[in-house]
Amino acid sequence: xxxxxxxxxxxxxxxxxxxxxxxxxxxxxxxxxxxxxxxxxxxxxxxxxxxxxxxxxxxxxxxxxxxxxxxxxxxxxxxxxxxxxxxxxxxxxxxxxxxxxxxxxxxxxxxxxxxxxxxxxxxxxxxxxxxxxxxxxxxxxxxxxxxxxxxxxxxxxxxxxxxxxxxxxxxxxxxxxxxxxxxxxxxxxxxxxxxxxxxxxxxxxxxxxxxxxxxxxxxxxxxxxxxxxxxxxxxxxxxxxxxxxxxxxxxxxxxxxxxxxxxxxxxxxxxxxx
Length: 274
Ligand SMILES: C[S@@+](CC[C@H](N)C(=O)[O-])C[C@H]1O[C@@H](n2cnc3c(N)ncnc32)[C@H](O)[C@@H]1O
What we know:
Layout: H1 23-34, H2 37-49, E1 57-61, H3 67-76, E2 81-86, H4 89-99, E3 106-110, E4 123-129, H5 138-147, E5 149-167, H6 172-184, H7 191-201, E6 205-215, H8 218-234, H9 242-257, E7 263-273
Helix pairs in contact: 8-9
The protein binds S-adenosylmethionine.
GO molecular function: methyltransferase activity
Domain Methyltransferase: 58-153
Organism: Actinokineospora spheciospongiae
């Protein structure tokens, strides 16, 4: 796996993996993200948040390449099982390919988290990492997450709050405009801070929320912002010209060159009992 990524892709369009020319861009983006040290800690907490998983049936919603589902499957043991579901057939195919020959109790299906094809209370635990933020109907998605957990079962969620993006840049005014535009370009830019309220409102109890700040390497920062900001500029959403936008990137390239680049983003792990 290389640690660079074409920066023209738009990570806000994870709902459209199958209709983009190159689904492998999204796969590579997720592999880069999941390799960050902070993600290791997030995955560990998501697993402990689900409680004792021995013998449990667990649903991983928006499973992507299935790496996390396989990690979960190591904890359920031979009497349990993990089902990974994703809207994208390309992702499900990748997840099945990566799991081929594995003795772990894990399987994969396509499903839209806004209308899950499973019975009420079908799972002991449900996990959703970085998928809610892409849903066009967040209320339906959250209702579904809760519906398929059995009474007493556990929910574990990780999502970013994009307004927490911090980047060290000399031009504060331009940076504020660009960050605000990037935040508002997401379907649910304030997703993270709303997690606790949204699941309390759905009747869950023992709700906990833990912040995790991720330091963003320059390549990952570029891949996350560059395509979106260029599109926003081209469609007239910014006061900056294309040249201004190009100039804004220059100090960041220089900082990266001098090992002075700094950016971070905070996400939140929610745990809750139905
Ligand atoms: C950022 S990736 C996260 C994947 C995985 N959970 C991880 O953390 O590595 C978002 C995933 O959500 C999937 N997705 C987007 N909208 C979805 C929906 N409505 N229902 C199910 N999956 C969806 C995408 O296809 C993609 O695989």
